[in-house]
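Q: What structure does this chain adopt?
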Amino acid sequence: MTALDLSSPVGVVGTGTMGQGIAQVALVAGHPVRLYDAAPGRAREATAAIVARLDRLVEKDRLPATARDAARDRLRPARDLTEFADCALVVEAVLERLDVKQELLRELEAIVSEDCLLATNTSSLSVTAIGGGLRAPGRFVGLHFFNPAPLLPLVEVVSGFATDVTSATRAYETARAWGKTPVACADTPGFIVNRIARPFYAEAFAVYEAQGADPATIDAVLRESGGFRMGAFELTDLIGQDVNESVTHSVWQSFFQDTRFTPSLAQRRLVESGRLGRKSGRGWYEYSGESGAVERPEPHTAEKHRAPAHVVVEGDLGPAGELTALIREAGIEVREEDEDSGSRLVLPSGGRLALADGQTSVEFRDVVYFDLALDYRKSTRVALSACQDTSPQTLAEAIGLFQALGKDVSVIGDVPGMIVARTVARIVDLAYDAVAKGVATEEDVDTAMRLGVNYPLGPFEWSRRLGRTWAHDLLEELNLREPSGRYAPSLALYRHGHATDKREGTS
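A:
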């Protein structure tokens, strides 16, 4: 099944940000495009706005003037839906209300030809439910673009329960012909990105609610240690706290209030107070002036401490194995010992330094945990956690060690799993669970998370780097300490880790 022919008209209903963006994508790809909005005059205004954006692209030498002129000639506002009668594809991007979308699609079905594809750009509603009232739901598909649609490459092509394979394939190939990167997924709450991304926000908020660290410090650790482009607090301020919370709440409700998707009480209070982020001038952070410049407190950064003269490496440091070479390069003596009972660094004081594993410092004598990093060589910050029983000398030596490696150090509270480690483990778990339930392939999940939310690695890439059992083991420890079900490893993640153990035990 091939993409739609470029001579085929494309209709877009709804002229908000997403509707205009989708129309611009189809237009630049070469299609005649018709825009409709129920509000009088809005379609004409949107047409002018799209042409103005094309003019700016020409000014920036990103679009030839001849291509702009041809696109302008192919774009026209529609007075009513009957002008969509010859369209090969109509995409609705109207209000996120099920009844509104269902009524619109029933109207369209009575107008367009039998082989016209109908699509929704919904981000939170069920594609199956939206198309449930159609006479021919097989031609109905989700085409979830990401904002801004002309710039972001990802499109989730969502098959509802009744969507025909041929319809999904044609939508997929059309998105690809438009220069997008499509991923195929089943109709599940949140689709791929909004389902698997929930822990990125939820775990940051949970650390904050547990008074483990302030927003600026959590964001700094996610960026500078985890490799994420933005921290959870600054990103939700950019998205809008009300928008982000609404998506979280929708996914939670759609999964019958599954504890893995439980919304944040702290975010709820923020929304209730009207602190919606950049658009309201206040969110987790303050924003000022017309530019909306952020007034963000500095992250907690430890004062300078002396580096230890030597460390003892016991066992295999696993995902933190590169630290051994970095410590040597910093001129610190490294003594290596085989150790069957665990993997850790022993400091001159006798205290231990261990990678976050879901346990707490209070459970062991004189231990400091350090957080996961995307790349310990390139990371510029590392988080440490300790409890009230950790000796000041052990903490000082741990701080000094990482500072000798050129890292800023943030000391947070005794939070099991810390910040990056618990976040990555939960993202990996939801990814395995989604694939096991037929939502998407591993390849499409990784592509969606890299392109849709700019993660430094896809969940399965991360899992391969960390080791098969790492995420499962960390979540199992977290689940012991908070047995609400939120951190219980999925059956898919359990099978993934234990399948390797079984194969390794055979001859």
